[in-house]
From TrEMBL:
The keyword GTP-binding does not apply. This is Thiol:disulfide interchange protein. Residues 1-25 form the signal peptide. One of its GO terms (molecular function) is disulfide oxidoreductase activity. It comes from Sphingomonas ginsenosidimutans.
Length: 174
């Protein structure tokens, strides 16, 4: 058996792998059930999507080098401070190419929103910064877009969701 004959099956498998591409989770689609996720905050606390059921959640991706992100973050923080009593939660996840967490501690200490170190789930496939996902009280994705929120955007998207009743808790299994 020649080297060429031995390598032919391996080359075919390699080519098939390239053609199919890696198995990548699709980003959440508006109107669909939000895929499960786990957030790890900067202090190491883990928060799952199940823990957030019944609340309106904003997942925000930002970077320290992103000018629109730096404008949006104080707006999200102030909005959260006003709306948290109505069931709003806001989580801000920095991209990997931002400043180190140690340099961000003074900012994080001043924020009302929860800074996130890591997030699992299909929410990291973003096309621009900032990117925001909004999940309603029932666990459906209601907003998924790159671009900074304005106050008008927040009021248009978030206020109706905060006015929706929380879903009834699931009955315990018998």
């Amino acid at each position: 058996m020649t080297i060429r004959t031995r390598l032919l099956p391996a080359a075919a498998l390699f080519a098939a792998g390239i053609a199919l591409g890696p198995a990548v989770a699709r980003p959440p689609a508006v109107g669909q059930a939000a895929p499960p996720f786990t957030l790890t905050t900067i202090d190491g606390t883990k928060i799952t999507s199940d823990h957030l059921r019944g609340q309106v959640v904003i997942l925000n991706y930002w970077a320290t080098w992103c000018a629109p992100c730096r404008q949006e973050l104080p707006l999200l923080d102030a909005y959260y401070a006003l709306q948290q009593r109505h069931g709003l939660r806001v989580f801000a996840a920095m991209t990997d190419d931002s400043l180190p967490l140690s340099k961000m501690k003074p900012l994080f200490a001043a924020l009302h929103i929860t800074p996130v170190r890591r997030m699992t789930g299909p929410y990291r496939d973003i096309t621009g910064l900032p990117t925001n996902y909004v999940i309603d009280r029932a666990g459906r994705v209601r907003y998924a877009r790159a671009g900074a929120f304005t106050l008008d955007d927040l009021n248009r998207v978030i206020v109706p969701l905060l006015n929706e009743p929380a879903p009834a808790p699931a009955a315990p299994a018998a």
